[in-house]
Every structure is written in C-alpha cells, then in structure tokens.
C-alpha cells in the first residue's frame, strides 16, 4: 500500500512526505520497541526515498493527531512523580530516551539529508504554544529544554516546532491552520513554513462528515506562497483509518478520511486531488523566482492585491488576489485587465498570462457510488477454499473470548486502563450498558456536589491544563430525584 499512496502523492505534485512517529505504537512496553510490519518506520522512509521524495520526520513524541493519548504510551502514567509536557525530570528522561532512539535509528540507516538520505526536516514537540499558558511558569523552561535536547542530537537538518511563537533559536516556529498567509516566524532569519494545512477535519461519532471545498484549499495555498511562504504541507493528504485502539478521544471515529485528496481507501478524491495537482504544476514553473527575493506588494483596490516576484535575471511571476468572499472583480495589472472571481488567486508565471485560478476547476470531477459486495464469513463457512476468495470481497471473523488463563473476576468495580495498562480491547460484556441507580443519600443545607466517574469513548488526545493522563471523565448523567434525608 505504501508505494501506491506515495506514488499518487508524487503524481499529485508533492515533494515532501510528512509523518508522525507514534511513541505508543513503537514502545508499547517500557524499553521494548516494535518496528515490525506496518510499524517499520525505516522501511517507510526508504520507500519514500525510492520514489524520489523527501521526508519531514515529526518525532514529537507528543503528536496529538487524534491518536490514543496523543501518542503517549500508557506505561508513562505509572512512573512515580511523572507529569507530562512540563519541566519534570521523569518525563524528560523518557522523552529524551525515545527521541534519541529514533534519531539513532535514522542515523544508522543514513536517512538524514547530510548522509544522502531523504529527511530534510525534523520536529520536536507539537502545538505546545496552544496550551502553554495552562502549564504555568515552568512551561517555557520545558520548551527551552526540548529545543536544546533536540539540537544536541546533531541531525544536521533544521528542527521545527509548530504553533510555538517563542521557539528558541535555531528552532523554526511554524504554522498550523486553515490559513497561514498572515503568519510570520519569530525571526527574519527563519523561513515562513506551514506544517499543517488542514484539508478537512477529523470525524467524531455522531457528527457530520467534514468537508472543505478544494477552491478554498487551493486559495489558502496560493495566498501562502503569494505572501512569502516557502514550505507547506497538507494535513492530511491521505488520512486513512485508525485501526485497533489507535483512535483517540473522546468520541473520535476510526475513520480518519479528513476529506483528503487521497481518501481513506487510497482512492483519488476528485476534483480535490486534480485541482491541487494543477496548482502545484504552475507554482513549480517559477520556483526560481519564489526563492530569489521577497515579493513586492501592490494594492489593486479594496480587497484586491498583487504580489510580484522577480529574479536578478529578469524572471517575473505574479499572484493577483481577490480576498472579498462575495464579489467578483476586474483589475488592471501591467496595463492589462484581469477578471478575479470572489475569494480567488490568479497565478501569472510570466507576469502576463494567467496559468491558474484557484476558483476555476479544470480537472476531472468524479462522484463515488457505494455498491454492495459479497462477503465471506470464515466462521460460518470453514469449507470454502481461501484461494477462491476475491481480494475485493469483505471478510469478517469471530473474535474468541479470552481463555480462562487470561481472564479474572473481581468483587467491585475495576477501571480498565489502570487494570490492563491499555492492553485490552474490552472489559466485561457487550450487553446494554445503560443502568438506573437509585440510592438515598444525605444532603446538607446549601450546595452539594455529587461526582460521577465514567470512562469515555477513546482516550484523550489533547493535553491542555492537564499534566498527567486523564483516565476517566464525568459525563452528562440523566438525573432523577434527589431529596433531603
């Protein structure tokens, strides 16, 4: 699957593949590492390199990503006196150990750019600036430590921190969001970079299917490069599926389709994939001009802008933007009229002829249709020869209940995560879990507080004011009667 997805990304005009490194996937038990099968990070990076693409390795090791615990392994929770993502020695020790492990693996396989490999960027931490204020006065010292620790590993490629305005030198602070054209790095010595351009959004149980029009996505990309951008990455370009217990929470679905240009099943989502491919082709026509100098800005009227790039040899490229989201406009540029649809950017690789407009789609448009297919129930038909099963047929199997050697009973309530260290897929039966509790309690005059504790669907992925893992959360109960007694 990797070669096909990577080739489709390359055909779509990408130069770099970003990938997170999931700590709990690779170190499920403290000190025991797993890089086999679909967890083979080295093989994945080498597959990207074989396609002629580069890699941005986002080590984290906190990654969020709507992933279980944001990538943290559950065993961290059991280390005495640990607090996460703060100036805490037990946490920093484990974070440094894992980060060093990954870096050493990459070095041993000669995968960094200075070794001739594809890795041109690395990331430490993840969107910490969004929650830094909740961590108190030691938050900045933690970020400074993380930066120092990362640079001490001598990877000889730039390190970035996304959403971290106070990232210390030489760490490059980058932008995540739907639009990043207004973003500026915290030093004029750092390039303007966009690590996450959200192509859609993740899916929650009970929520609608997220959708972002490709016209808007292309507009965001063009505006970013129009205003001095140097690097942008789609999050996601292919979203895929969160298998097993990897989907985080609360209430995040297993589908991570993200309305991405390559959909959950590896199929091209048109016209999103094709329209972005056409945009990438045009931008690459004048790469030399984009990196030669900062653009020159000219106002063409209210909400109408031109940015021009010129090289020392006279090469010229221009972006004309209409940032009004309702009204079309006609502007005059270099003595010629140009029609600009609302909320669009026209790109002129030679400062004269329009090669692309973000609001005009010329690529293929397709409509996917869901069709029924045959299934094969192995449990019901053990006599069927597996060679007769088509690869396109769905297969489902009966999952046996654990043997007597792996089950136990307890008088009283058990909390699943603490009991099993997150190593089980279920606890108890699949029967209706609803229940009604009636009990006589004594209330004092004035305000009374009643706490109910309940496990959530999916384990928390985003740590804000919390410095340790939240294993349970209160939900909204249905209240009956309460009386003084």
TrEMBL record:
<keyword id="KW-0326">Glycosidase</keyword>
<dbReference type="GO" id="GO:0004565">
    <property type="term" value="F:beta-galactosidase activity"/>
</dbReference>
<keyword id="KW-0732">Signal</keyword>
<dbReference type="InterPro" id="IPR041392">
    <property type="entry name" value="GHD"/>
</dbReference>
<keyword id="KW-0964">Secreted</keyword>
<dbReference type="GO" id="GO:0048046">
    <property type="term" value="C:apoplast"/>
</dbReference>
<dbReference type="InterPro" id="IPR001944">
    <property type="entry name" value="Glycoside_Hdrlase_35"/>
</dbReference>
<feature type="domain" description="Beta-galactosidase beta-sandwich">
    <location>
        <begin position="305"/>
        <end position="361"/>
    </location>
</feature>
<comment type="similarity">
    <text>Belongs to the glycosyl hydrolase 35 family.</text>
</comment>
<dbReference type="Pfam" id="PF17834">
    <property type="entry name" value="GHD"/>
</dbReference>
<dbReference type="InterPro" id="IPR019801">
    <property type="entry name" value="Glyco_hydro_35_CS"/>
</dbReference>
<keyword id="KW-0378">Hydrolase</keyword>
<dbReference type="GO" id="GO:0005975">
    <property type="term" value="P:carbohydrate metabolic process"/>
</dbReference>
<feature type="domain" description="Glycoside hydrolase 35 catalytic">
    <location>
        <begin position="1"/>
        <end position="282"/>
    </location>
</feature>
<dbReference type="InterPro" id="IPR031330">
    <property type="entry name" value="Gly_Hdrlase_35_cat"/>
</dbReference>
<protein>
    <recommendedName>
        <fullName>beta-galactosidase</fullName>
        <ecNumber>3.2.1.23</ecNumber>
    </recommendedName>
</protein>
<dbReference type="Pfam" id="PF01301">
    <property type="entry name" value="Glyco_hydro_35"/>
</dbReference>
<dbReference type="InterPro" id="IPR017853">
    <property type="entry name" value="GH"/>
</dbReference>
<keyword id="KW-0052">Apoplast</keyword>
